[in-house]
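Memo to structure team: turn this sequence into structure tokens by end of day. - J.P.
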Amino acid sequence: MKKTLCKYLCVLLAAVLLLPLQSAAAGAESAPGLVAAGYCGGEGDGTNLTWTLDDAGTLTISGTGSMYTADLASPWYSQGQLVNTVIVEDGVRNVGDYAFQDLANLTSVSLGGDVTNIGRGAFFYCVSLNRIEIPEGVISLDREVFSGCAALASVSLPASLSYVGRYALDTCTALRKIYYAGSEAQWGQINFEFVFPAEVRVYYNHYLPSDHTPAPSEPRNEVSATCTEPGSGDLVTYCTVCGEVLSSIPYTYPALGHGTKGFNVSTVPSTCAVRGYTMTVCIACGEVIEGEIYEIDPHNHAHVTEVPASEATENAHGYTAGMRCLDCCMWVSGHEVIHNHLGERTVVREPTETEEGLVDIVCTVCGRTIRYTAAWEAPEPGEDEGGDPGFWIRIETTLRGFIDWFLRLFRKPKP
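Reply from structure team:
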């Protein structure tokens, strides 16, 4: 009985002692595992600095002193595709030449406060790096330090910076913003061995984007509302120091509706040629709100003209004066027929050279006898009064014969 009790107590004690060890093992399994490690110091035997790379992709440099200068190939170069984060801890005084070159998946960099120099090509062709913050205390950025970082859009630089080498930001095609902790005057004292592209803007007295001092929001890009279309704009907040747009919130407001400035109502009556209408127009936008088109009014003649009277003649009727429409050509008033009393003609007296002739006509319309005068018309040459064309020829021939006979009577015969 005592042996059995002792056995159970031993098992229970063993279980209690193993429980903390199991918890520690479980915690070790959840923490990132070590992929590779080594030394990278630049002092003595190089053990002043160590590097570790875990399976989460974090490369950590720790220790005290300077980093050694790589000859275009760092100790972790062969595992470069695994690196997405670089952490340089406090105590490290510099970043060596080409230390982190060609880390294609690198997106995050944290540099300790003791770094004073970043070496040549340190981040050469880190094509995924979007942003980096250089800490206060860094004095120089050597040439080609960020060359080829095509995704690099913004850089934060400290006021302590005094030198930036040639090609430091070469082919950084996405770069648009540089945040500088110092003033514009301090910026002018930095020795730059290159010229920034025109599209890169420097924000002075800022180290981080979060350092902005926002001004009260104000509307920008406003489009006024119309009768039928809503208005819109952007509520923009600027930084009072650098002028950068911190936020832009679009907004809209409803359309005004017709009649804000009243309506024009116009009525045009129909005429014999053109339809009339009634139309209501919004003064603000000019849109026709409602309207009605009328039918042609054959009795409304807008353009008329007076036509004088014409007397009847022997061969044609005459007309009284009248008013005629220029649009539809209808006679509006007047223009009544004056008969010319056509009928049987009776010559009362033939006209002569000295006296007019007289002609009576019995009108077949009204039965009246109308007397007209007839003027004398001289005969055409070559016609006699009877209308014989040989009359004057015979006269001329007779006279010529008489003259020849008379001349022969008085002509002396030759001896």
